[in-house]
Amino acid sequence: MLDILQQIVYFFGRGLCHQYTSRSLEAGGIYFGVCARDTGIYLGLVFTIVAICLLYARGRTHPSGMPPSWTVACCALLMVPMILDGISSYSGMRETTNLTRYITGYLCGSAVGILAAPALLRMWRANRPELRMLAAPGDFIGVLCASYALGALFFAGYHLLGVAAPLLVLAAELAIATGLNLLILLPVRETEQHTRLHRLAFTEFKPAAGQRGQEDQRGQRDQKGQGGQRDHLNGKAVPAPLPCTALHTSPRSCPRLNDKAASVPRPGKLGAWICRAFFLALGEIALLSLVAEVGRLLFPWLVHP
C-alpha cells in the first residue's frame, strides 16, 4: 500500500521537481513528491493566502487592490534568501540542509502569496479593487506571523502526520494550479455575464418594427394630451414618458432587464467554475508528469545518480 501511495505522490510531483531523496522530507515511510525547498514554497503560498482570507473574512468590504509599494518591496526582500541559498548550494560554495531549504522556500512562497492574493480575492462579491490590500503595517505583520506560525507548526509536526503530510503538500500543489486556472477562467465567466446582459439591453432598446410604430403613435397621443394640460398651466409641453431602459445608466440597474435575466440561463455558478479549474489542474499536472517521465527515459544521464 505504501509503495502505491509513494508512486502516486511521486507521479504528481515528477514534472515540478527533481525529486532527489536526499533533499526531500519523509514522513510515514513516504518521501514528499517535491524537495524541501518546493515544499516550503507551496505551503508558504497557500498558508499566506489562507491568512489573508481570514483577515478580511469578517469585514463587509474586501480590499482586492495591489498592496502598496513598501509591501511589494518587503516581498522582494523575502525572496532574496532562497535565491542566495540556491546559488551558493548549487555552485558548491556551501552545503545546505533541508531545514534551510524549507525556511528560504517558505519565505519566498509567502511573498508570492501576498502578491497573488489580490487577483484571487476579486472572486468575492464584496471586493473593492480601489482599496489596497495590506495597506496597514499591522495587517502585513499579522498575516506574516500567522503564516509563519502555520509553517513552523507543519515542519515541527510533519513526522506525526505520517502519510497525511505528503498528501497535504500534494493538495497544496493542486490548490495553486487551480488558482492559476481560475485567473484564466473567471474573466471568461465575467465576459459571458456581460454579453448576456448587453444582449438583453439591446432587445429592450430595439423593439420590433410594428411595436416601435405603435409606441410612437401612443407617445404622440400622450404628448398631445399632456401638452394641452401643461400649456394651460405653464405653457410647456411634456414629452412622452421614457422607457424603463432609458432611465438607467447600466443594464444591471434596470428592473425590467433583471426580470428577464432571471429567465435566461446563467453561465454557471462560481462553484462549477472552481470544479472545472480543479479538474483542469489535475490534468495539467498529470500531463506535465508524463512529459517529465518520457524525458527521463529518453535522457537518462539527466537523472541524479
Structural overview:
This protein has 305 residues and is mainly alpha-helical. Among the domains are: 35-162, no CATH class; 207-262, no CATH class. It is built from nine helices and four strands; from the N terminus they run αββαβααβααααα. Strands 1-2 form a two-stranded antiparallel sheet. The chain is globular and about 65 Å long. It starts with a helix and ends in a 7-residue tail after the last helix. Residues 226-234, 240-252 and 259-267 have low confidence and may be disordered.
Question: What is the strand and helix layout of this fold?
Answer:
Blueprint: H1 2-13, E1 26-27, E2 30-31, H2 36-56, E3 62-65, H3 69-90, H4 98-121, E4 127-132, H5 137-161, H6 164-205, H7 209-233, H8 255-262, H9 270-298
Parallel strand pairs: 3-4
Antiparallel strand pairs: 1-2
Helix pairs in contact: 2-4, 2-5, 2-6, 3-4, 4-5, 6-9
Concise overview:
Helices cover 68% and strands 5% of the residues. It is mainly α and 305 residues long. The longest helix has 42 residues, at 164-205.
Uncertain parts:
226-234, 240-252, 259-267
Number of helices: 9
Helix content: 55-70%
Number of strands: 4
N-to-C CA distance: 26 Å
Round the Cα radius of gyration to an integer and report it: 29 Å
Kindly list the characteristics that best describe this protein.
305 residues, mainly alpha, two-stranded antiparallel ribbon, two-stranded parallel sheet, 9 helices, 68% helix
